[in-house]
């Protein structure tokens, strides 16, 4: 027993050390007598302090303590220290735009059905997020693919004598070059990448800071940040890769004019890849369906979900279909479709706009002036607010003649 207890004690000591807060950690403080009084710290720095109406709290007093330990302010008020979760981090950190709430972000990630693998023969996962915003979904996506990538190489150490010398006059330049080369090689070898793009440099920079600030940037290396128009970025990626072949496993669009980017997104999406669009209004989802039908974009609508306020809903399904009423169809000649001409599964034109073939409605062609939409919640009453997700899948490029 003594032989076994020594290693066990070492493991326990190591665990206890790793469970204490260190410099650059972000933690949550809750007042002991008022749990609703929450403070999210900046990255811990021994020289800094938190000033509140109940006294100051030194970062140095937090460093070295563990989760649920108490720290006392200068006025004698006790606060309990907590490890910050991802959900708390994206919801409580300073924001420039409204974030995608954790429940909604988790739903979106689950809809992509990601299965990352670090195996050499595993297919590379590339996910596009257009509309970086606060970086909340970026972090959730990066966490989902994190297992596919090896650890980011650490920067080369710099000695004290080199820190104050210029790069051109010391070996620090060589160290920096080696670090850059190692990082570049690591990025090229990644098995999973999140490409996130925002039209605003300000929002993109802030989101990058948010991603890098969570747990010492553990998920930051999986993400490439871009600034600009998403359609132009996709075109530039095709040029950079010297190929017109699709390269995206999945894509998410959270943009004011989503329908303007559907064609570009579809061109970069691999067959059977998932394209999820977020819009505040159901009519914007309808605009996307009309665009797909009108321009024969090789996408079909898989499902439509409504999100609740502040992430309160797991996604209520909506019945959203382009249809032609029976009364209107009576005046039209019946077209007999040969069995050999029918598409299988959900890649047919009819299946791309309906999820309920039992309905006594005839699907309309896009050029028919009499076509309209069924647009209603599938069950229960409508939840106010939130937004809508349109989940599309990529057909074969030749699936829509």
Element layout with pairings:
Blueprint: H1 2-18, E1 27-31, E2 34-40, E3 49-52, E4 55-58, H2 59-62, E5 70-72, E6 78-83, H3 86-92, H4 102-112, E7 125-130, H5 136-145, H6 160-163, H7 172-188, E8 192-198, H8 201-213, E9 223-227, H9 230-241, E10 248-253, H10 262-268, E11 269-279, H11 282-295, E12 299-307, E13 316-323, H12 326-329, H13 349-353, E14 372-377, E15 387-394
Parallel strand pairs: 7-8, 7-10, 8-9, 10-11
Antiparallel strand pairs: 1-2, 1-6, 3-4, 5-6, 11-15, 12-13, 12-15, 13-14
Percent of residues in helices: 25-40%
Listing every helix as H and every strand as E from the N terminus to the C terminus, the arrangement reads: HEEEEHEEHHEHHHEHEHEHEHEEHHEE
CATH topology of the largest domain: Rossmann fold
Task: Determine the structural class based on helices, strands and strand pairing.
Answer: alpha/beta
CATH architecture of the largest domain: 3-Layer(aba) Sandwich
| Main sheet overview | 9 strands, mixed
User: In angstroms, what separates the terminal alpha carbons?
Assistant: 74 Å
What's the structural domain tally?
A: 2
Spatial sequence of strands, sheet with the most strands = 9-8-7-10-11-15-12-13-14
State which percent range the strand residues make up.
15-25%
The rough form would be described as: globular
Low-confidence stretches: 1-17, 159-169, 328-367, 380-385
Mean pLDDT: 80
| Count of DSSP-assigned helices | 13
Radius of gyration: 26 Å
EC number: 2.1.1.220
Region (Disordered): 149-181, 311-367
Keywords: Methyltransferase, Transferase
Organism: Aureobasidium melanogenum
């Amino acid at each position: 027993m003594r032989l076994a207890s020594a290693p066990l004690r070492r493991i326990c000591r190591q665990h206890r050390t790793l469970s204490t807060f260190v410099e650059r950690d972000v933690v949550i403080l809750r007042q002991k007598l008022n749990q609703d009084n929450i403070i999210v710290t900046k990255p811990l720095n021994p020289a800094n302090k938190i000033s509140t109406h109940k006294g100051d709290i030194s970062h140095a007093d937090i460093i070295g303590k563990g989760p649920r330990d108490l720290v006392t302010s200068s006025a004698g008020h006790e606060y309990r220290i907590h490890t910050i979760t991802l959900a708390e981090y994206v919801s409580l950190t300073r924001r420039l735009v409204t974030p995608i709430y954790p429940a909604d972000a988790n739903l979106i990630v689950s809809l992509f059905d990601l299965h990352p693998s670090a195996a050499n023969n595993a297919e590379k996962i590339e996910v596009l997020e257009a509309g970086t915003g606060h970086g909340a979904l970026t972090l959730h996506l990066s966490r989902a693919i994190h297992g596919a990538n090896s650890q980011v190489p650490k920067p080369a150490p710099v000695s004290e004598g080199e820190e104050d010398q210029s790069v051109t006059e010391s070996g620090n330049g060589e160290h920096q070059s080696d670090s850059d080369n190692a990082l570049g090689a690591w990025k090229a070898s990644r098995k999973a990448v999140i490409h996130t793009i925002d039209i605003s440099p300000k929002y993109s920079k802030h989101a990058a800071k948010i991603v890098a600030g969570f747990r010492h940037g553990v998920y930051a290396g999986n993400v490439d940040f871009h600034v600009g128009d998403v359609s132009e970025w996709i075109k530039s990626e095709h040029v950079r890769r010297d190929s017109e072949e699709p390269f995206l496993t999945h894509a998410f669009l959270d943009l004011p004019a989503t329908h303007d980017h559907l064609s570009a997104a579809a061109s970069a999406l691999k067959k059977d890849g998932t394209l999820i669009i977020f819009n505040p209004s159901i009519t914007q989802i309808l605009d996307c369906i009309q665009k797909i039908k009108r321009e024969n974009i090789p996408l079909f609508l898989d499902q439509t979900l409504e999100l609740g306020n502040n992430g309160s809903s797991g996604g209520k399904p909506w019945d959203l279909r382009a249809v032609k009423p029976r009364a209107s169809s009576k005046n039209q000649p019946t077209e007999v479709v040969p069995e050999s001409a029918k598409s299988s599964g959900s890649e047919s034109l009819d299946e791309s706009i309906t999820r309920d073939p039992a309905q006594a409605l005839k699907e309309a062609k896009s050029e028919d002036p009499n076509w309209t939409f069924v647009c209603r919640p599938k069950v229960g009453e409508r939840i106010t607010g939130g937004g809508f997700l349109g989940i599309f899948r990529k057909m074969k490029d030749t699936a829509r003649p």
